[in-house]
């Protein structure tokens, strides 16, 4: 299965360039979920949500739709993966699992200043629930080591392939039975649209990855409403 969508859906600058004039904000998720087959929930990074939030979102999307959920920043940015068992359990108890079959991978994005520390990462991976797929977006060059990728493989956790306009290192290494890709903008972080040749190139990669397992691709070039348009363009290319 190939899932292509956007990182989030509530962006005022999308109203007009993407969301139709007159569409009320509460129906934006419903509208976007009829155009793409997956979306990252990003608000869960900033604060814990409630079961009612997740149930409401699930009710607004088609039956075969899947959400990826971004892990809480208290785990990744405050605790920096250190002694986070309680925080991880609290995150999942906040209602994430109420998405049921509409729950896709959970994304754990690490701060750029966090260096690779094998023992700390090993302890973090050990407390993640096995019933959920997980992906880690490391953003420091010290993670570019066989030991890091081996740890992820041992837990079937995906190393995120992130295109960040050179702002952060990119690791094109597959470590799980699925692939997780985040496209933040090829030329300018969060701001640049992907050209037709760039989308053709990404489409070829997506098709190759799909031969080995599920693929999740999320566009985070949210400024100027590029993300939804690029998601639709890529989906059209991969069929």
Q: What number is the mean pLDDT?
A: 97
Q: Which CATH architecture? A: Alpha-Beta Barrel
Class from helix and strand fractions: alpha/beta
Largest sheet: 9 strands, parallel
User: Count of DSSP helices?
Assistant: 9
Uncertain regions spanning at least 5 consecutive residues: none
InterPro entries: DUF72, UPF0759_sf
Protein name: DUF72 domain-containing protein
Organism: Kutzneria albida DSM 43870
Pfam families: DUF72
Written overview of the protein:
The chain is an alpha/beta fold and 239 residues long. Helix 6 (118-127) runs parallel beside helix 7 (146-154) and helix 8 packs across helix 9 (226-238). Helix content is 34%, strand content 18%. The protein has one domain (2-238): TIM Barrel (Alpha-Beta Barrel), CATH 3.20.20. The chain is globular and about 50 Å long. It has helices at residues 28-33, 43-46, 51-59, 73-78, 85-93, 118-127, 146-154, 196-210, 226-238; strands spanning 2-7, 38-41, 66-70, 103-109, 134-137, 158-159, 161-163, 178-183, 214-219. It has a 9-stranded parallel sheet.
Summary keywords:
nine-stranded parallel β-sheet; TIM Barrel; alpha/beta; globular
Fold blueprint:
Blueprint: E1 2-7, H1 28-33, E2 38-41, H2 43-46, H3 51-59, E3 66-70, H4 73-78, H5 85-93, E4 103-109, H6 118-127, E5 134-137, H7 146-154, E6 158-159, E7 161-163, E8 178-183, H8 196-210, E9 214-219, H9 226-238
Parallel strand pairs: 1-2, 1-9, 2-3, 3-4, 4-5, 5-6, 7-8, 8-9
Helix pairs in contact: 6-7, 8-9
């Amino acid at each position: 299965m190939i899932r292509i969508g956007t990182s989030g859906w509530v962006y005022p600058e999308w109203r007009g360039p993407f969301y139709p004039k007159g569409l009320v904000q509460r129906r934006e998720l419903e509208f976007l979920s009829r155009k793409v087959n997956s979306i990252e929930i990003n608000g869960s990074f900033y604060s814990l949500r409630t079961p009612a939030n997740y149930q409401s979102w699930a009710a607004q999307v088609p039956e075969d739709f899947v959400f990826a959920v971004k892990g809480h920043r208290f785990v990744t940015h405050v605790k920096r993966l250190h002694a986070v068992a309680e925080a991880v359990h609290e995150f999942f108890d906040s209602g994430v699992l109420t998405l049921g079959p509409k729950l896709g991978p959970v994304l754990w994005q690490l701060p750029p200043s966090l260096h690779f520390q094998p023992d700390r990462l090993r302890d973090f991976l050990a407390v993640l629930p096995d019933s959920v797929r997980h992906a880690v977006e490391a953003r420091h060059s010290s993670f570019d080591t066989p030991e890091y990728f081996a740890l992820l493989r041992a837990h079937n956790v995906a190393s995120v392939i992130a295109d960040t306009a050179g702002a952060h290192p990119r690791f094109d290494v597959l470590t799980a039975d699925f692939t997780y890709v985040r496209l933040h903008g090829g030329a300018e972080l969060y701001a640049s649209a992907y050209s037709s040749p760039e989308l053709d190139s990404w489409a070829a990669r997506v098709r190759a990855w799909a031969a080995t397992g599920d693929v999740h691709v999320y566009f985070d070039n949210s400024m100027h409403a590029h993300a939804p348009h690029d998601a639709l363009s890529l989906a059209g290319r991969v069929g």
